[in-house]
Amino acid sequence: MRKHIAYPMTTTQTQGAPPPSSLVGVPVRSGGFLATINAEITKFFTLKTGPITTAVLGVFIVLAALLSSLSLLSPSGNQNPNAEPITSVTELRFVDTVLWMAIVFAVVAVLFATTEFSSGQIQLSFLATPKRVPVVLAKSVVIGVLGLLVGATASTLAMFVAFAVLYTSDVTYEIDLPEVATLAAASGLFMGLIGIISLAFGLLVKNVIAGIAVPVLLFSILPSILESIGNDVVTTIVGYLPSVAGRVVLTTFPNPADLEAWPGMAVLSGWAVVMVALASIVLRRRDA
Q: What gap in Å lies between CA 65 and CA 154, rounded to an integer?
């Protein structure tokens, strides 16, 4: 009789690629929404360009306030001789840089959204959280809170740095703590909400170039172009665009739709909610 020899089972096919959790630092099984947020925080700080750029824009807000206050001590020789000398300033003068740095933060948010699609890591994120909507919400929370913290902290430092420079000068600058708190909160909210809108748009288009170009145009150039048309209806619509509505509390320029400070911020918040909801719906219905 021919003997049958039993060979041991091989395991070479099960020792291939490492599990997804070792690639992105997230568990394959979701540990809840807080775990998803923690995973998104880890991914954000793994992309070095995001944290570095965010830190730089915060430093630039403070630096701009420092340079602005120093310019008051030694006015330029090219200044119009018929112009009245500046004898007093308010806190608002030293936080307007937030409006421009928020556009830089929008680019950071878009990159945070689109990099995972270009690298394919978004598949692992959806493997860990199959419902997908928590991923969108977690990314929005991370970007929103980061923008809030950087905007509020940098603007607060900016106002106090200017105060330190002008304290013994002839230019009157009196710190009003309630006003400082208001402007700090508005700066943080503006930057955080602009970041959330940009993130959601990046998730929708999945393309870095389009994801950056459209928000930058929407937040900076498009409002001026539309307002220059001169049509009353178009001008009113401009007042409800996200950056124009949200900036009311941070600038002396009037809103084209006559929005007040906090109603304007509410409109900006509405944009963020709508964009996040739209990104959630689209991601649920399409392949990553």
A: 10
Please check whether residue 242 is in contact with residue 192, taking contact to mean a CB–CB distance below 8 angstroms: no
User: Does the CA dihedral 282-283-285-286 come out positive or negative?
Assistant: positive
Binned average pLDDT, 10 residues per bin, the chain of 288 residues: 45 41 43 84 86 94 95 66 74 93 95 80 65 88 97 97 90 91 96 97 91 92 90 93 94 92 95 96 75
With CA atoms as reference, report the closest residue to 206 among 103, 123, 86: 123
What is the per-residue pLDDT for 43? Answer: 87
| DSSP line for 65-108 | HHHHHHHHHS--TTS-TTSPPP-B--GGGGTTHHHHHHHHHHHH
Instruction: Give the whole-angstrom CA distance, residue 165 versus residue 69.
Output: 6
Look-up: residue for tokens 């890591």? 121
pTM of the full predicted structure? 0.84
* 172 backbone dihedrals φ, ψ, rounded to 5°: -80, 125
Question: Quick one: residue 76, left, alpha or beta (phi over 0 = left, psi -120 to 50 = alpha)?
Answer: beta
Distance CA 22, CA 87 (A): 60
What φ, ψ does residue 144 adopt, rounded to 5°? -65, -45
Query: How far is 60 from 47, CA to CA, in rounded Å?
Result: 21
26: nearest Cα among 15, 37, 16? 37
Contact predicate 62/151, CB 8 Å: no
pLDDT at 27: 41
How far is it, in rounded angstroms, from Cα 67 to Cα 61? 10
The domain locations on the chain are: 31-70+90-285
Which residue in the block uniquely carries the two structure tokens 């950087």?
150
**Structure-token pair, residue 155:** 């603007």
